[in-house]
Amino acid sequence: MRIALFEPEIAGNVGAVLRLGACFGATVDLIEPMGFEWDDRRVRRTAMDYIDHVTVERHADFGAFRAAIGSRRLILFTTKSSGSAYDFQYRADDVLLFGKESAGVPAEVAEICDARVRIPMRPHVRSMNLATSAALALGEALRQTGTLPG
């Protein structure tokens, strides 16, 4: 299972997702450009010592990312979907894609995803924090596929 972040803008969110990946054994794909300077000090501060326990792959752009993941299914988490993330049937090699904090993903990226799902929430709120969404999504996907760590 992989978590992919499309052009993430906030270093703290990336750090929290790196920690999530370390705890659950999920590779984290970072699709550039990012909205902050990637440097070891900043990343270590946000991911703490967990960065040594997660596989991180950086991709120059979405095309490079698509080439790197091959035929894996790409599951987009978006508020623009009506399908529940809890009704979707995950596979152990899925890639869970999350858009940039301010704008999600462009329409052309959404269109090529294999599936689009949303995390159900109350109607009068817009969205959850990126790292919170990734945690809910990854937890459900790992639970369904029987691949939660022991």
TrEMBL record:
Keywords, alphabetical: Cytoplasm, Methyltransferase, S-adenosyl-L-methionine, Transferase, tRNA processing
UniProt cross-references to Gene3D superfamilies, sorted A to Z: 3.40.1280.10
GO molecular function terms noted in the UniProt entry: RNA binding; tRNA (5-carboxymethylaminomethyluridine(34)-2'-O)-methyltransferase activity; tRNA (cytidine(34)-2'-O)-methyltransferase activity
Residues annotated to bind S-adenosyl-L-methionine: G99, I119, S127
Pfam families registered for this protein in UniProt: SpoU_methylase
EC numbers on record: 2.1.1.207
One cellular component (GO) term of this entry: cytoplasm
Keyword presence, Cytoplasm: yes
One biological process term in Gene Ontology: wobble position ribose methylation
Enzyme class: transferase
Keyword Transferase applies: yes
Subcellular location: Cytoplasm
Broad class of the protein's primary localization: cytoplasm
Catalyses which reaction(s): 5-carboxymethylaminomethyluridine(34) in tRNA(Leu) + S-adenosyl-L-methionine = 5-carboxymethylaminomethyl-2'-O-methyluridine(34) in tRNA(Leu) + S-adenosyl-L-homocysteine + H(+); cytidine(34) in tRNA + S-adenosyl-L-methionine = 2'-O-methylcytidine(34) in tRNA + S-adenosyl-L-homocysteine + H(+)
Domain tRNA/rRNA methyltransferase SpoU type: 2-138
Record family assignment: Belongs to the class IV-like SAM-binding methyltransferase superfamily. RNA methyltransferase TrmH family. TrmL subfamily.
Quaternary structure note: Homodimer.
HAMAP family documented for this protein: tRNA_methyltr_TrmL
Protein name per the record: tRNA (cytidine(34)-2'-O)-methyltransferase
Highest classification ranks of the organism: Bacteria, Pseudomonadati, Pseudomonadota, Alphaproteobacteria, Sphingomonadales
